[in-house]
Amino acid sequence: MFFDSRAPEPFLDALIEALPVGWGGHSTGPGLADSYQEESRQRDLARDACSWEEFLRPGETTGFGEWLLLSLGEEERYAVTIGLLSGPDDSWSLFISSPGGLADEQGEFLRLPRASTPGEVAHALCRMARAADRRAVEKHLQEATAERRHASSSLPGGRIVVFDLETTGLDPETARIVEAAWLVADHRALAWGSVLIDPGVPIPEGAYDVHGIDDTMARNDGVSPRDAIDELTGILAKEISDGATLVIFNRVYDLPLLDAECRRHGLPRLADRLRRPVQVVDPMRISQQIRYHSDNHALSDLADLYSPGNLAAHSALGDCLATWDALVGLCRHYGEIVVRLLFQRQEVARHDEPLTVQHLLACSNVG
User: Fold this and answer.
1) What residue spans in the chain does CATH classification 3.30.420.10 cover?
2) CATH assignment of 149-364, given 3.90.1210.10, 3.30.200.20, 3.40.50.1820, 3.30.420.10?
3) Residues 129, 77: contact at Cβ < 8 Å?
4) Is there a contact between 45 and 62 (Cβ–Cβ < 8 Å)?
């Protein structure tokens, strides 16, 4: 099945079906029943056609194309236009253009082979969405370096270092890392980084459905796993040695997986570099302990509560930002409850002690 500008609906419907799980969309086809809506649609498409003129090469022309509104969950995220592009030699190709959306305002223009399938276009849209998410998270973090994202009193213990992984599977002993990120912060963002990794093995469809990274993206843009894992583990070890507290959302997955990757590539583990056991603050475990009346302890649940404007779900850097925000939100709203809970378990001497990193560590390691 190929895109046909005269009858685009079957292709667009198949494209929406090919998007990763959790993504959705709908096309804004001709509104034949409502002439006003159709006139408005044509005006908007004409406006978009002007916006992508800067991307066209000499001799290239386009039609208006068709709109596709993409969403993640219930949130509308991106508006893209799909259409045909005519070249100077009468060749045709498929183009995708995005004027920017809620997550990112930067326009993009992609050229794809005329015979691209709905699945191939879906993968191209994921690459476009991930790039937009990265720019949006970078913008949040850049703003958080210039001014406080959180009150200085809301996070005990000073600096934290957060890391997050996107991977090929659920088993930490066998899964491979495809994206890693880290963030150093206190009440401001201090430093951060992320890297796309070629895992050297096929990325299963189920993993692609989670993070939108496919084999082509990892192979073309990813770096050597050994070098990336060595650098990430070294950064974490240095930050912890310099006094930062390690924060991982769901520590029983990410840390064992990082250890397994270190062993696989003949590298010293994080504990080996620190020469002591690794202590971790885990916001997911803290939430399970103190928000026991709720079943919503996933990072996406806490991000909805505490990470405003962060739409980059299941990108490693976006999840680092969400983890930072979630930990601060839990400390701010439930800090006294954490201390009382530990007092009831006879793990602290007083129920009214000020919240400390040791309290967070103790609450992260219960059960």
Assistant:
1) 149-364
2) 3.30.420.10
3) yes
4) no
Measured distance CA(141)–CA(114) in Å, rounded: 38
182 contacts 162 by C-beta, under 8 angstroms:
yes
Task: Decide: residue 7, CB within 10 A, 0-12 exposed, 13-18 middle, 19+ buried.
Answer: exposed
Distances (CA, A) of 348 to 170, 222, 345: 35, 47, 8
Report the distance separating Cα 39 and Cα 304, nearest Å: 37
Q: How many Cα neighbours within 13 Å face the side chain of 101?
A: 24
Distance CA 198, CA 302 (A): 30
Tell me the per-residue pLDDT of 38-79, one tens digit each, with 9 for 90 and over.
Answer: 666 566 666 666 666 677 788 888 766 777 777 765 566 677
pLDDT in tens, 101-115: 444 456 678 889 989
The Cα 133–Cα 228 span in angstroms is 21
DSSP 4-63: -TTS-HHHHHHHHHHSPTTEEEEE----TT-HHHHHHHHHHHHHHHHHTGGGPPTT-EE-
On whether the CB atoms of residues 282 and 251 are closer than 8 A, the answer is yes
pLDDT in tens, 276-320: 999 999 999 999 999 888 888 988 889 888 887 666 666 899 999
Cα–Cα distances in Å, from 215 out to 112, 207, 212, 220, 344?
17, 11, 10, 8, 50
